[in-house]
Amino acid sequence: xxxxxxxxxxxxxxxxxxxxxxxxxxxxxxxxxxxxxxxxxxxxxxxxxxxxxxxxxxxxxxxxxxxxxxxxxxxxxxxxxxxxxxxxxxxxxxxxxxxxxxxxxxxxxxxxxxxxxxxxxxxxxxxxxxxxxxxxxxxxxxxxxxxxxxxxxxxxxxxxxxxxxxxxxxxxxxxxxxxxxxxxxxxxxxxxxxxxxxxxxxxxxxxxxxxxxxxxxxxxxxxxxxxxxxxxxxxxxxxxxxxxxxxxxxxxxxxxxxxxxxxxxxxxxxxxxxxxxx
Length: 278
Description:
Structural class: alpha/beta
Distance between the termini: 34 Å
Helix content: 40-55%
């Protein structure tokens, strides 16, 4: 990706350099549970709410000033700006108004309206405050999973923005309400559809990226994105963790499905091509 000449987003909160602490603390055991759950595609927010219980109060202690104008921060700001540039006209075409989310950069631990989260949970979107949370060091974890390249990391941002799009369209809230009324197996199936749709929306961003932003794609970028989608498939993660592949526990979709829906968005660039619920 050629991104350095593109604009930067103003909707960034850089909380790096600050550590979040709670009254009781999550503890190493809790972090291990969350990490295992994330590897198996379990929603980090759900696990955090379970582990934290009533510990919703957070205090931040300074660990040095947040880094300014670093490469990772600039890149993520540029990618977020490109999602703003893409989704604003797309929403307008459908007679709707796009409201930009905020991207929170953190290291270690962070407080969101959805609870307290650690870097071990990976990137996530909190619909309660309409913010995306990313620890830039997650890129190193992606490389360990075989997903490298700047477009692969940009896909992660675009996927989380996809959840914001779902939130604005009402899909996310409706799905979550329904999930609370059904069995765990049925709820997992709905979760998979939510995640695959976010992949498709990430594809729409990739489809319209050069039309609405100054970011330019380079040879191999699309391949990087598809490889990243493959790397975070439920079956891939379960196999990597040495566990048994159990479709009943899928919450994000198989590697093949994630690649297919991302590619669907990349190919067609249309919201109506991203209906994963029918």
